[in-house]
Specification:
This protein has about 500 residues and is α/β, with parallel strands linked by helices. The protein has 24 helices and 5 strands. Strand 1, helix 21 and strand 2 form a beta-alpha-beta unit.
Amino acid sequence: MKQRSVLIAFAAAKVLLHLLCINQYGIFRDELYYLACGEHLDWGYVDQPPAIALVAWLARHLFGDSLLAIRIFAVLAGAGTVYLSGAIARRLGGATFAQALACLCALVAPVYLATSHFLSMNAFEPLLWMGCAYIAIVIFQGGDERLWLAFGGLAGLGLENKHTTLFFGSAFFLALLLTPQRTHLRRVWIWLGGAIALLIFLPNLLWEVQHHFATIELLRNIARSHKNADLSPLGFLLQQLLLMHPLTFPVWLAGLVWLLRRPPYRVLGLTWLILLAEFLVLKGKVYYLAPSYPMLFAAGAIAIDEWAKVRALRPAFLALLALTGAIVAPIALPILPVDTYIAYSSALHLTPPATENHRMGPLPQQYADMFGWPEMAAVVARAYNRLTPAERARCGIFGQNYGQAGAIDFYGRRLGLPPAISGHQNYYLWGPGNFRGDILIVMDDDRETLEKLFHSVEEVGVVGHPYAMPYENGKPVHLCRGLKMPIEELWPKVKKWI
């Protein structure tokens, strides 16, 4: 019970840390999109499986529209990841120090601080992957092989959360083949677990078939556009050090060695190595590997506990990790007011790793995308309210991306605006709504392009925020009248899956 109290304490600290700064900045761009998807529940979306939309719908309908309400499930998932890191260490035989160290590594890792602070698929991914790892450890220790059914259930949920779970599943399967644990493949339970995973994933797979594998089309477009930051293998590995916190490096490296040297658990070490190889070859984003680290933290904490002959070094290392974690935390978590953060980041010469090729403003993208949305909706609302009631009934609002459209859907509801339309991602599949071509408020487009499409174009405002991403700053809003072609002819041309 004492050891479990340690895990609970670290998980509670994780929750408290997020609650203290939950309202520091605004809503994140992707959260606006997930909330919009939650109003269009389906078995799939162009850029994600259905689970995140369901979570968004549940959060909103259970708790409301506050930032705490929207983010509470992500925060709890992050706390679960911290707890599970210690629980894996305990399952592997780690004593109290090892469990505390594993929890602390997960607590201070900047990538987990960032991804579990807002509603995100990435908040749930480590919990699902490492839930599978925990079950596998139990089975490898002689547990009931019917637990493969639970493994399959979690893997299926992981696939409905994010398609990158396919990489975890393939890596785990290949690792089984390469170790004596392949004997599990001769028995029925692991295959039944696989069948359960497939059954849970099937609705999304059928959605993909019905939509001509929209997600694959999207990924091809992204690859051709060079949207994502391109890193060398060495650059990818160096970014791992920053994402997981440099002082956790000896822990997770020791954990990898510890797992590889123990036949019952070698599968997990090989799984991590195969995942690394997959993401290096396919040029995955640097954070794609992040969900796999808690099992390395757990094993590495045990290794360090075994190797630390001087017992006084153990609390000293915990204290050093906690202190440096606190120093780095503002880079991943909006703890500081904006101006203070800018000065702090500049003084330390620390910024979060860039995952996309965009020009930056005073803030990194993960923070910049939390600013400007209410102001954007207010500019559009002023233009909309200039119209007569009859004109407003025929007016549509067009956003160039899901952030702009999502801002109108989220903030516009209380401003009396109609739902937005867009050609970006799943907004394209939701179609033009009630807009038939009479009056359209268009965000972020140039007058010359719009005059080719409409008989009348008038600039009615400019949107921007000093802390927002540069590509959202100083952008005009136009009021357009009289579409020159049927909306059915225009709509396929606005499709933007990237």
